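Supplementary material to the annual report.
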Amino acid sequence: GQNIDQPTEMTATEGAIVQINCTYQTSGFNGLFWYQQHAGEAPTFLSYNVLDGLEEKGRFSSFLSRSKGYSYLLLKELQMKDSASYLCAVVDSNYQLIWGAGTKLIIKP
Amino acid sequence: GAVVSQHPSWVICKSGTSVKIECRSLDFQATTMFWYRQFPKQSLMLMATSNEGSKATYEQGVEKDKFLINHASLTLSTLTVTSAHPEDSSFYICSATGTGGSETYNEQFFGPGTRLTVL
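Predicted assembly:
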């Protein structure tokens, strides 16, 4: 079966750095997305990785290792507005998007 | 660019009534639209995929006679929840991709979602 694992909840302090991990076992791989979702809102796109390595975009970076079936989202200089759920999603061999359950990130002052 | 709208943003209805939710791509032509459902504290669950001018493809366990999807144009798809019941109360989200094709995957652009409450 297809499976995507991410921690259910994480807590971090304003101004700090947090890393949200995502591991996956899917039938094929055609890329991995990270989305941010605030409560009661639709997901918004953060990043897309299809090759190994680190993609940096402002305060957010995303890393992928295809051989390990592993990705992480790194958030720097945390702000209170970063409190949200972060969803990892993998595109499988049928170009279907497989969603993780999301990681709820709580930022404390 | 790549803006997707949904209407209504929230709706409350009585059990047994039907509710229609519209999903529009405002600044691009959406050849493929996706409908998701999300229950509280759970991830997105894909309900169906629709391509313009053809019948929707439903995920296993989703009743196609209950959740009617119409993708009549390149900018509009509708989801009708027929004979809604309290267990259908959920957050319904649509997304759209700009170009189709079996060789590539295109980013999905999400609508803001519709919160349905069935009394």
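Confidence is low (pLDDT under 50) at residues 100-104 of chain B.
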